[in-house]
Amino acid sequence: MDQAVVAQDTVTGAFEGTVTNSKTKTPIKDADVQIINQQTGLVIAVRTDSEGRFYEGQLAPGFYRIRVSVDGY
User: Fold this and answer.
1) 3-state secondary structure (DSSP) of residue 17
2) Which of 36, 42, 48, 65 is the most exposed place for a label (fewest CB within 10 A)?
């Protein structure tokens, strides 16, 4: 018995980074990171972990802007 198989290969991207104090190089925990798709206006919000790291995967192809904000900076 033959069966048809359908597969889809999705092209995606990701952003990862580390937010640090530019003078002391100390990682900044709980920084608000916005990943903004410039074509659609979609905003994806993430926070940095205890080592200042952030990651967002499965992003559609496009042009993005990353905006970081932290209270006190």
Assistant:
1) strand
2) 65
User: Which has the closest alpha carbon to 15: 51, 48, 39?
Assistant: 48
Name the phi and psi angles at 20, rounded to 5: -135, 160
Q: Enter the tokens of residue 49.
A: 């972990």
Task: Quote the DSSP letter at residue 27.
Answer: B
Per residue of the chain (73 residues), what is the pLDDT tens digit?
A: 555 555 555 688 999 999 999 999 999 999 999 999 999 999 999 999 999 999 999 899 999 999 999 998 7
Place of tokens 């006190």: 72
Question: Is the Cβ–Cβ distance between 40 and 55 less than 8 Å?
Answer: no
